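P.,

For your records, the input lines for the assembly:
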Amino acid sequence: MPELPEVEVVRAGLAPAVTGATITGVSVLDERALTRHAAGAADFVGRLEGRTVRAAARRGKFLWLPLDGDEAALIAHLGMSGQMLLRAPDAPLERHERVRMHVEHPTHGELAVVFADQRTFGSLAVDALIADGPSIVPSQVRHIARDPLDPFFDDLDFVAAVRRRLSAIKRVMLDQTVVSGIGNIYADEALWASRIHPETSADRLSTQAVRRLLGEVRSVLAKALAEGGTSFDAQYVNVNGQAGYFAHSLNAYGRGGQPCPRCGGPIRREAFMNRSSHYCPRCQRRR
DNA sequence: GGGGGTTCCTGTACGC
DNA sequence: TGCGTACAGGAACCCC
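Structure tokens returned:
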């Protein structure tokens, strides 16, 4: 399940392969991969062919490739199970392949960039680039808050925004308009590390508690990034199809019934927002 | 406009 | 063995 570390691993893998490369051909095998591109497949292809990729950028879980001219970008959201894979130009179809782009790089030669997605929650689009303060982002990303690894992330604003909310802190952490990049896995991990119960109302957390939580969010994201991301159900892989190792370092997520690494009590798994929360009822007391 | 619930989707795991 | 069902969850969307 790609969250910030996984998307960043993908971005970093794509960057050297596509920066400076020209898009020579695009095949859309499944239009459901273009739900973010309202104008349809022919328009999508027309806006990409012949263009040169300038870079690979990211905010939260959104990834984009700015195109020459600086007016538009190819954006990608991996959803639950999306993968961006680098393949030889004549490589056979991937399982669940939705879109294939052929690119020609001035030094690396020809390459196929494949978007594969089992559960089809992911999607690509060509979108206009717009200014967002000091940043340039696709219009579809404008409402997404900066992520905690963004140099322009404002810690004080974040603490204040969280403490204004009347919802459960975990719901607030998953709200991409408050802070981006955090999904179910890293929300559970950061809450465990901060000893905060996921159902705690955000407005009842002290400034210090929210600051500590933000520190733990940054810490868990950085550690996951260093280990290549979390590959929990084999859906997430890097651009070469390799899994990440952070699943071995999880303390709470996916460990329902197993002993808490801190106190030894059983980790509890509970339904929460149509998904699951994993926490230690002993270390993470409900206020 | 905040808050909270629903919906989209497919492969896998599991119970009967 | 085979069938049915629950489950995984990011984010847009809807209603209150």
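Two observations worth noting. The two ends of chain A are 30 Å apart (CA to CA). Chain A has two domains: 4-140, 155-279.

Regards
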